[in-house]
């Protein structure tokens, strides 16, 4: 293997760059990475029961009874069975959310004059009344804008709960799930989802910027730092490819998992770069081979733990653990390719050129 680096490093450095082209197409063009309800807004209903049910059966029941598109995935394991049902909110609920948001916006202008504030309060009351009438067909009159807004928000909560309960009743009856069934429901508005996603992306961006600055201060050489950055990008791209392959949506949770991939990638590449550049014993190829043995031991240990996590999460249907472990697994596979083919070869070339 040491001879491999000595004789072939100029050739293998391009392998990750070539692989990155189809991966970019796969992640961003076709089929593309999905966005979770944390970003787009919507509902997810998680069901756990004791019998095996097909995805087609659940989809057919919901589309027939409610006439709405739905994304269903089922998990059947030796210990239990379950279904993850993602669906958009009812049109009435979506329209009511817009009216309630307008009512809230009308009350948040603290710089308006007293006459303008009274006018905005009346507008807020009218928006709240329209939302209540849309959701419950009730005509109500209010003199206080905040009371009207609270009533509209309560009406929206009640409407969503009634729809969710009806969906649960239909599924239990049509699928004959019996009494031993568990439900978990999540609902996120589109406005909140966009705001949360924007905040998450800002945090991820500044985290990456601070990380790059620290790496540059530590090594103070452009080529090694670029090698670490390129390896980091490839690892994230590989992790996102795994998300597309396993149909794991992009969400606040998976953004956190991608940041873990970045941390793992930087850890391995800093170890490699420090060993090749800082140590003086042996040739660049021999120092790279020494770092390779340490890195493979680290990755093998981590992969073993992640595979165990995946097995347990599938058996007991722990979706959060499965998503994080799967993303990290794909990221570590990308790390093996980017670090020991691209970055290692780049460092050998840089070190030998510096000697000359």
What does the model show?
This protein is α+β, with helices and mostly antiparallel strands and 356 residues long. It folds into two domains: 201 residues, Multidrug efflux transporter AcrB transmembrane domain (Multidrug efflux transporter AcrB transmembrane fold, Up-down Bundle); 147 residues, no CATH class. It has twelve helices and four strands, in the order αααβαββαααβααααα. It has a four-stranded antiparallel sheet. Strand 2 and strand 3 form a beta hairpin. Helix 4 packs across helix 7 and helix 6 runs parallel beside helix 7. It is flat and about 85 Å long. The mean pLDDT is 87.
Describe this structure in a few short sentences.
This protein is an alpha+beta fold. It has helices at residues 2-12, 15-28, 37-40, 55-66, 91-106, 114-136, 145-175, 190-219, 222-245, 252-278, 284-316, 319-355, and strands at 42-49, 70-76, 81-87, 182-188. The chain has two domains: 2-37 and 191-355, Multidrug efflux transporter AcrB transmembrane fold (Up-down Bundle); 42-188, no CATH class.
